[in-house]
Amino acid sequence: MSNLKPNTSLFRRKPIAPAEGNLKRVLGPIDLTTLGVGAIIGTGIFVLTGVAAAKYAGPGLVLSFLLAGLVCAFAALCYSEFASSVPASGSAYTYSYTTFGEIIAWILGWDLILEYGFASAAVASGWSGYFQSLIAGFGIHLPTALTSAFNPAKGTYFDITASAITLLIALLLTRGVKEATRANGVMVAIKLIVVLVFIAVGVFYVQPSNWTPFLPFGWGGVTAGAATVFFAYIGFDAVSTAAEEVKRPQRDLPIGIIASLAICTVLYIVVSLILTGIVPYNLLNVSDPVAFALQYIQMNGLASLISLGAITGITTVLLVMMYGQSRLLYSMSRDGLLSPVFSKISGKSQTPATGTWVASIVIAFFAGFIPLGSLAELTNIGTLFAFTVVSIGVIVLRRTQPDLKRGFRVPFVPVLPILSALGCVYLMLQLQALTWVTFFIWLAIGLIIYFAYGRRHSLLNRS
């Protein structure tokens, strides 16, 4: 008989070691950087800039992006250290499993399911809006009932295009990670060209008088704007979920995370300055602010090109968010906390194809029925919570495993990780009370699933 005894501790920890998985190591630093840029530049720059300027920050939107970018930069450094020392899929879930223990890892993993799932649904919803606007230019109109999320007052019941693009992305992801990143690279190049064209043309139409008053809503508007546009930065953390498919994760993951965030922060700041310089901020409460700015200066042809670029850009965000979701579920399933269906590898593509399809169908459902605003708020709080835990985790792991080999080290520990955690909590406090209530309900549901299934089936339940 076996002498193995169950390890029932809620804080049992995984050993830090390269994962023994069946995923192909095919990605390099350029692949990871384009993956990060693909995830970050999309809904934020093409949709949220206008709303944040008109409702919260005015021309001070540039400060909102700087504030949100600074918080993300600190968090990115913390992610980079973990990514270089814990070379396994699962991102913050895996990091917390090796640092804090299983119950904290489950909470964070369940939180990340919320982040990636609702972010994917929100992005699909934004994609649908741009796509319907584009085909309307050719005289094609969908039935009203199928144009947006469930809202009987407006006669809409299901967003069919949002669901359709979700399932198409799932098809691409299940063909293989190299094929998906190759397609992502092409789309990233297209949207970067579109953004640079807007900057090159728009700079000649900037009216400095539009920047006055610079802070029409005061500093409170800037911080509220930062909490809103934080959605624009979500994605760099998805790079770390690719750890088991990277050729040299200790070196390449920090490069991909930091480079993608740096590129996108610079572009956000420049675009927000030009956007509010072309159009008075109070006119920017539209769903397509970049295209609207070009229409404002009577460049309708170029505005159509921007709309096409926006669709491409938002597609890459959806691709990376759904990729991150599938790899997170793969890691949690492999650890025994979720059903084995999510870690079943397809022999031909060597991807978790079955789990990807299951998750994608659920995302398609939410994208079709739930409004964009509700999805974005829940995504923000989930991401900020994950960033907070990872930042604290760096300090803890430095103390508990000081000799662990780290390909990248966060400078000024513990000061910088503490600043990162405090910045994330500060932005979380700017979100609505209803968002907090929904978030805690989500975590409660997760704990029920853990104690009913995950705790008993965990691989660490055997010593």
UniProtKB/TrEMBL annotation:
- Main localization of the protein? membrane
Q: Which InterPro entries does the UniProt record give? A: AA/rel_permease1
Q: Where does the source fall among the domains of life?
A: Bacteria
List locations, semicolon-separated: Membrane
Transmembrane intervals: 32-54, 61-83, 130-150, 156-174, 186-205, 217-236, 257-281, 301-324, 353-372, 378-397, 409-428, 434-453
Which Pfam families has this protein been placed in?
AA_permease_2 (PF13520)
Do the record's keywords include Transferase? no
Keyword vocabulary terms for this entry: Membrane, Transmembrane, Transmembrane helix, Transport
Q: What kind of membrane protein is this, topologically?
A: Multi-pass membrane protein
Which PANTHER family does the entry link to? Answer: CATIONIC AMINO ACID TRANSPORTER 4, INNER MEMBRANE TRANSPORTER YGJI-RELATED
Q: What is this protein called?
A: Amino acid permease
